[in-house]
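user: can you give me the structure for this one chain? tokens are fine.
assistant: on it. calling the predictor now.
[tool input]
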Amino acid sequence: MMSQPSPIVRRKSRQIFVGDVPVGGDAPIAVQSMTNTLTTDVAATVGQIQALEQVGADIVRVSVPSLEAAEAFGEIRKQVSVPLVADIHFDYKIALRVAELGVDCLRINPGNIGREDRIRAVVESARDKNIPIRIGVNAGSLEKDLLRRDGEPTANAMVESALRHAEHLERLNFRDYKISVKASDVFMAVDAYRQLAKDTEQPLHLGITEAGGLRSGSVKSSVGLGMLLMDGIGDTIRVSLAADPVEEIKVGFDILKSLKLRSKGINFIACPSCSRQNFDVIGTVNELERRLEDITTPMDVAVIGCIVNGPGEAKVADVGLTGGTPNNLIYVDGEKNSLIDNETFVDQFEAKIRAQAAEKANLIATDQG
């Protein structure tokens, strides 16, 4: 079934490239995460990056706090294909080293690395190697003069800080940069991004920093990022969770799917279940999500436990399952397809979903060819 396009009108922004991933302009909103392994543990970091790649990460950020970590980063770069951002604070020599080792983007605030000659050295290296820069402002690490003036972190102070850093790049005629202004307070972050969106044409990386654990952080990020995305603001996103980074990618894509801004993998439509259900809806959905994580073809799958809402939801999904007595009913492309009993219905339903996904993938490939 064909989903309606998103009604959201994206903000016009300048396009840059992080590796081969376009950011800004009319490019899809990129979803990224950050490793939490020791960067000097090359095997662990490579393993985590590969796990992020498997769930669809467009970009991965890696902290590089030392020259030793920079050398490890070079080894990591050789073993993975996803674009990598090096997260660097203060030390311009680390930025110069990872630039030599194949970094795809530098996350470094120009105003924090000292003298003009150091800023120029980093900018010229980035320009020479076509490496963009991300200016990353956090409410928790604002400049002392801004904190003295305002007494506490504010949206205005974050925007002013970001524009200060941007001025260093603009002065050197370097335009390949993106900006983030993150706060753990949803309202402060949203206010800052809305202001910044009016003050610059550069692409914006969205995030609610230090959002919390898997459940609370996902909720907070969904609210904050959702408000901004509905405004058309945002070119890349990161859902910052105190959880496995893989979950950040999954939640990020779920946010974009809910707003019809990205289509990747299965969008499950499932009832919360009640006493009318003819099968275990919650267990079925959890099992299907686990089994079908490998499917990247965009499609809607409805799992409804009874005949009250089941047929209506199933008819507008690519594949739908409706609880019934004595047998449950599968719909494919809005048409009744087959009856299945409660003994083997999960296996049978999975087979139907996979067959439909393969058919849709072939149609997409044919259209693109």
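assistant: here you go. The first strand starts at residue 16 and ends at 18. Residues 20 and 328 are 46 Å apart (CA to CA).
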